[in-house]
Amino acid sequence: QLVAYEVKRMHTEEGNKQKILRHIKELAEKLYKNENPYPAVTMHKVQKPTEGCHLRLHQKPFPRLDEGTVQWIIDQATAKLQTAPPAVKAEKKCMVPSGPPIAAIMERNGNALANSARRLEVVRNCISYVFENKMLEAKKLFPAVLRAMKGRAARHCLTQELNLHVQQNRAVLDHQQFDFIIRMMNCCLQDCTAMDEHGIAAALLPLVTAFCRKLSPGITQFAYSCVQEHV
């Protein structure tokens, strides 16, 4: 019933946070009442007497109970139990519409995975173009790469691809290549979260000490000098 009746309402409430919160509270109350149809009965606990309490001085004697009063209380409780409604809630049979087809849900998930794969492919292609000195092609893909850095998978892909080029002894770059790599690293670190501190940021540490460019004979600038503002 939740899937059948509430999907359209969710679509109409998109963008209105107050309606969404009110709707969530209503659903929570319905779910709670469904799981707890009858309010819990409070039970009064009688404390167990401590050891040796009967040996204390000035112990008040237990009052004598009236047999008629006790029997009247028992009869009243028995009558209430006999007239009480059954504890099991009667089930109401009803026809529930099918709701949105499962194929549509699977299609949305498939589209999301396809979009993620395309973003990773764009990151790989852009890095390849940079190291192959195809700067015009790299410039075309560069804005899409910067947008893709908001996803953790793309940031992880960047560190893997750069690490492969370091292993291939391609860490010494010209000025244009160095600028592209630094901008990608800065964007990657800028979009990192606290969860990436020991993952993405740690993976970039050896890379920023490997990539460099020659400024003049005997003077080399390493990438870590350009990403130091990220704490």
TrEMBL record:
Q: What name does the UniProt record give this protein? A: MTMR5 protein
Pfam families (UniProt xref): SBF2 (PF12335)
Encoding gene (name):
Sbf1_2
Domain called SBF1/SBF2: residue spans: 99-231
Q: What is the lineage of its organism?
A: Eukaryota, Metazoa, Chordata, Craniata, Vertebrata
The superkingdom listed in its UniProt entry is: Eukaryota
- Entries under InterPro entries matching the protein: SBF1/SBF2
